[in-house]
Amino acid sequence: MEANKASATALGTSLMRALHTRADPWPIIDDPWGDRLVPPIAVDAFRRRAVASLPADSRSRAADPSASALDEHLRASAAYATVITRTRFAEDALHAAVARGATQYVLIGAGFDSYALRTPAGELHVAIYEVDHPATQALKITRIQACGAALRPSVHFVAADLAVENLGDALSRSPFSRSATSFFSWLGVTMYLAREANMASLRAIAQCASPGSELVFTYVDQAAFDKAAVADDDAASRLRETVASIGEPFVSGFHPQRLAHDLASVGLELLEDLDDQALVRRYDPQNRNRLRPAGRSHIARARVR
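and the corresponding structure tokens:
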């Protein structure tokens, strides 16, 4: 992504969460803030892109093709199912961690996540640390203010480019406590970083969090970067092409078979590793929402040893 520009994928995923909440028949998450946090100018840009993707005859027949084009464009994205199910998985794991005593929630690459604006009553005591690229975070703070929303004093914003800065160093600029039990979420980020940066961030989590703290993170199967292996994988290939076209290309992944070893090497224990098809089966077993997994996407849960 460009250094002075908010992440387009973060804006798009926020719109996807809102769309699912208000329009899908059996919502598995509740995020009414997604539409509000994205600035109107960005929504208009997404809508123009959606209309441009329609066949010419569809654009000419519809009185206002933009009315539903954006929703359909977002729902047709190869990332849609993953965005929805990973949010549910991460927040389920967060609730369980808080019930076991976690008192800090760190969102790495928070984007336009709205948990801080819709925190359940039973989790208001949890301190929140949102770590993100300065440009994306600045826009989010501006949008929260524009919405007239008030955040608790225990919500902290930590601007950092983790491609060049260590997570532990970034958190040291905040009231984050290394002795408190924490829960970390790292969603939709690792694929945009080089392997060295990902391993450094995992190591930093293990080093700055107390034993028993947990992490949920998403990753792309490294096989997705093997052209021969994905020759027939249209959905995964389409997703890679889409993010690359907006200047945010996938860079690296993990091998599922080696993930436990990779995590152990930095002080983490793998607890769960699910692909996107398993997530859809878990959260929408009757396929009421018609979620279509793209393939090659995983979510993992790990514990600090």
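(Above: one complete record from the training split.) The mean pLDDT is 91.
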